[in-house]
Amino acid sequence: MHLSRTRILNGLQCPKQLWWRVHEPGAAELLRSMPSQWELEEGRKVAELARTHAPGGVLIDIPHGSVRDRVTATEEALGSGARVIYEAAFLAGGVYAQVDILERLDRGFALTEVKSSLSVKPPHLNDLAVQVHVVSASGIDVRAANVMHLNRDCVHPDLTNLFVIEDVTAEAATIAVRLPPRIAALQVALGGSLPDVAIGRHCDDPHPCPFKSRCWPVPLPHELKSLYQSHTQLVDLEAAGYATILDLPPGLDLNAIAERQRRAVQTGRMVVEPGLAEALRVFEPPLAYLDF
Ligand code: SF4
Questions:
Q1: For residue 292, is it within any domain?
Q2: What is the pTM assigned to this prediction?
Q3: Do 197 and 230 belong together in one domain?
Q4: Cys-Cys link to 176, which of 133, 213, 237, 256 (CB 3.0-4.6 A)?
Q5: What pLDDT digit, counting tens, does each position of 111-128 carry?
Q6: What are the pLDDT digits (tens) for 59-96?
Q7: Who contacts 99 (Cβ-Cβ below 8 Å, separation ≥6)?
Q8: Which of 7, 23, 202, 205 to mutate to test the pocket of ligand 1 (most atoms within 8 A of CB)?
Q9: Ligand 1 centroid from CA 7, angstroms
């Protein structure tokens, strides 16, 4: 069995999460957390646009499930001297990785990962590190690793500056050299029983784990963290012994919204402040709301 780059990233976040993903691929939690059609389409369009910045390449256009055929096609493209390969596929040490854009340099190769974000984020570096590890282990001389992300300053319809390319070679290489023992440990863990991992911040970092309902205790109704207060104030309230909004006595130094929330929760009724109609009078219909 081989592990995909995404599975390795799941395992680096939490071996227990990886174990469930591999041993229960049909779990209801996974079906619920699948990317939407819209997200997939967005990623596909961004990837296609990104390729225009390294034109004339060979696309490994083989179904994604056909791992060995994809790897073979990549080897053939490299063997025929292709200067650019899109979605190049590599398999080494039981790990499968795909490279959005692989470019042949005067010496060695550059890997570019395309992201539809507006900046480089820490998970992107782990992602590229896994690619650097697998591609290097496949015998390719990797000299550069880049993240190509969307440019906040680009203004439609001029898309000439749609992307920014950031060189993260050093950061990815630093992570990549530490990967082999971590990957080996994940592979061993997958062969055993469910790993014992305590809950913690890693359950939401870098991505919310789909299995939180299995590991985390059932939240109390109206638990304190649902109160509209700053994190510091929530910590202070928790330290004072309050566990839920239902526990909060009147007269605490809450902001106006949190105080309204406390009253609504404790009375079980919607609170409409007397000044609401007056506050809304300044707006001219028709009104539209943008939530994001
Ligand atoms: S909820 Fe946390 S501990 Fe449980 S599998 Fe997910 S990441 Fe691991």
A1: no
A2: 0.80
A3: no
A4: 133
A5: 999 998 999 999 999 999
A6: 999 998 899 999 999 999 999 999 999 999 999 999 99
A7: 85, 87, 88, 89, 90, 111, 112, 113, 131, 135
A8: 202
A9: 14
* Strands (DSSP E) found in the chain: 3-4, 58-59, 84-92, 95-104, 109-115, 142-150, 163-167
Question: Residue 111: inside a domain, yes or no?
Answer: yes
CA 9 to ligand 1 centroid distance, Å: 14
Counting the structural domains of the chain, the total is: 2
Summarize pLDDT for 222-271 with one digit per residue, the tens: 999 999 999 899 999 999 999 999 999 999 999 999 999 999 999 999 99
Q: How many Å lie between the centroid of ligand 1 and the Cα of residue 199?
A: 6
Q: Is residue 210 part of a domain?
A: no
Residue ending a domain, choose from 167, 201, 235: 201
Same structural domain, 255 and 189: no
Q: Residue 260 is part of which domain span?
A: 219-277
**Distance separating alpha carbons of residues 165 and 280, to the nearest angstrom:** 46
Mutation test of ligand 1: which of 14, 196, 218 has the most ligand atoms closer than 8 Å to its C-beta? 14
Residue 292 has pLDDT above 80, yes or no: no
Q: Provide the 10 A C-beta neighbour count for residue 62.
A: 17
Specify the CATH number for the domain of residue 180. Answer: 3.90.320
33 Cα–ligand 1 center, Å: 14
CB of 211 closer than 6 angstroms to any ligand 1 atom: yes
Average pLDDT, the chain: 94
Quick one: 153 and 225 in the same domain? no
* pLDDT value of position 64: 87
